[in-house]
């Protein structure tokens, strides 16, 4: 022990005591999903507070020389408990009573109970030091090491902090109608029980309007349960905003809903409002579940197998490499589904998993914040099979378990989710998100981090050709843009069961007028060929400004594939807005094929004898009181702008720009819309905006023809070297960094945003520091290369699809089906099973791979 004491003394300066704000990773390895519960436990560096599994701790020691680690091992206690008793002697688990995470009454994030053992381990000889051993050591050693051990044990781990981000779904605001609510003196008195809907006679889920005391049933839930929407319909007729849910009234309060504010609210005058109708809050007892309790029940059910489309089948759990489940971290099923699919694609496997040793060896001092490291860690976790093991039931004794359960131990991608969501207003939260938006967000992050070397997102990248033909001159304009996803429209008016749908709508209207509960609506059957035809059919453009005739006219736009990617992603545009701008999901069944041939949609380019529209911008609005100045070229200056013909500075219609901005569009996009439509009014500008929203430079600053930089910049303006160095350090060239800074008036944050929004154009930015290519004149330059895309035959086969259940992308649940070795497999968070009846007609995102003949 004397030798160990001497070693501790020699490394004492490297042993730190955690301070507030230190990131302590004591629940998860930086390079794997090892934890204190894993075989071998977890080693926490007592200097950096990074955690390492037994497989990676020696790598960290060899790289850093850090010798002292806190070794944490946890053993799960055997728990046999029912609702009222805990066999382990611990208090019984409480049912959640609050729609919240991480606060009293909310969902528990870690219900298992563990016995924990900690000790200090000294490398390379792995000498162990327990708390008892410290008692016989010198005071300075005992004090420092004991404080560090106690501090690490007491500190909240980063993963736990991320998991327990306090979220409270019950926080309600005082209604703006509560204080001055007008109540009718109509003599209505409500009995303490025996209520029913005044329209359909339902006796549950009843809401009393606080203005006139009328009682109606509540809303219908997405699964068909609930009421018949009569309380909502009455508000739409009467305008009376507040209603209280009968059966939830107690001396402590009740559920109050504001239809005008579209939310659950507080009513500080609720006792007074209820007494108006003869209801004494102090004597009422709760007989109905509150809205919070109903939402909690839905949240508890969402992970159950019955929710999945294949609930009628007995599904066989699967285990092994590539069959690893992922824990739901709280509405993270969208992330789980997308990442499961991506790591079945060879490009992502090769980039991150095949090169995992190289990536880990090159990782920075804090690998938890390195994108490549965390993606490689996730990919290896999914593909290796190391974590594809049956999860023990917390209520069972592991020694008595007879057969594997459907749930897996799986992996919890906390570090990954925190990293890819950092700084994002949506993906950094615990709210449900759109899987398609997350896929594009992740692809964008891959693009940023693959400036050199192999880029797996190229597997999805393709070119779209848009051909616009002026109907008056018959001249054409060709443009190309990069895309990653094909968005397929859903023509509801071409459903094959239209008669059945119309009859169901007629019955629904009859039931609504008579107050009877409506029957279940049939699902619209839409042929896939119809959706594909809607994508490819010519689009008519009205108010198109033709440079050939120098006036507005009609044009047609035809969209085709200029290249076919190795892997094609198709999004079914199920989510739309109703006439009242309320988001809704189209309930459709589409016969999506297993094989797909898009060869007929390949773009043909300019045809022989076809004339192109002149490249001339619409005429800008000029006013006589505006000073006329030349717009300088890259080599121009105030005294000499002879390199370019002087252009008049256009004046944009500020009122139109303001109207567009008020609609939520970026300022620069609004300025471009007004400029390129020649100040011809809000309608033309709005059409331009809607037609260019997908452009990569949609929000980039407006650059007038003949100008090489954004307004307010001059070509001779000096560029801050520190800004250039920052952008170059991200993997961009000096030329590209120069262009970005010039386009954004030397504002670093805007330049970074600008350069990432122009990723597809970077290869064509042949601009040197002086502004022109070093080769000299325009005529001597080689044509710039386009964005890097792969191309091949347009024949594909379906290998995966992601499905969504719920009323909108912001709620509900995602699962994915993936074809592995000719067997469809369903991935539902931690459940991985052989699929018996994959619901291919109900998917949201479909993934195809090229068929190589």
Automatic annotation (TrEMBL):
Q: Which family does it belong to?
A: Belongs to the peptidase C19 family.
Documented EC number(s): 3.4.19.12
Cite the binding residues for substrate: 207, 219-222, 257, 259, 262
Gene Ontology BP, a term: proteolysis
Task: Name all UBP-type domain ranges.
Answer: 173-281
Active-site annotation: 333 (nucleophile), 813 (proton acceptor)
Location of the USP domain: 324-851
Q: Per its record, how is this protein called by name?
A: Ubiquitin carboxyl-terminal hydrolase
Q: Which residue intervals define the domain UBA in the entry?
A: 651-692, 718-758
**Ranges for region Disordered:** 71-98, 387-408, 499-522, 765-789
Instruction: Summarize where Zn(2+) binds, as residue positions.
Output: 197, 200, 217, 230
Which keywords fit this entry according to its UniProt record?
Hydrolase, Metal-binding, Protease, Repeat, Thiol protease, Ubl conjugation pathway, Zinc, Zinc-finger
InterPro entries linked? Papain-like_cys_pep_sf (IPR038765), Peptidase_C19_UCH (IPR001394), Ub_carboxyl-term_hydrolase (IPR050185), UBA (IPR015940), UBA-like_sf (IPR009060), Ubiquitinyl_hydrolase (IPR016652), UBP13_Znf-UBP_var (IPR041432), USP (IPR028889)
List the residue ranges forming a coiled coil, or say none.
Answer: none
What EC class does the entry list? hydrolase
Q: Which reaction does it catalyse?
A: Thiol-dependent hydrolysis of ester, thioester, amide, peptide and isopeptide bonds formed by the C-terminal Gly of ubiquitin (a 76-residue protein attached to proteins as an intracellular targeting signal)
Q: Which domain of life is it from?
A: Eukaryota
Composition bias, Low complexity: 513-522
Enumerate the GO terms in the molecular function aspect. Answer: cysteine-type deubiquitinase activity; zinc ion binding
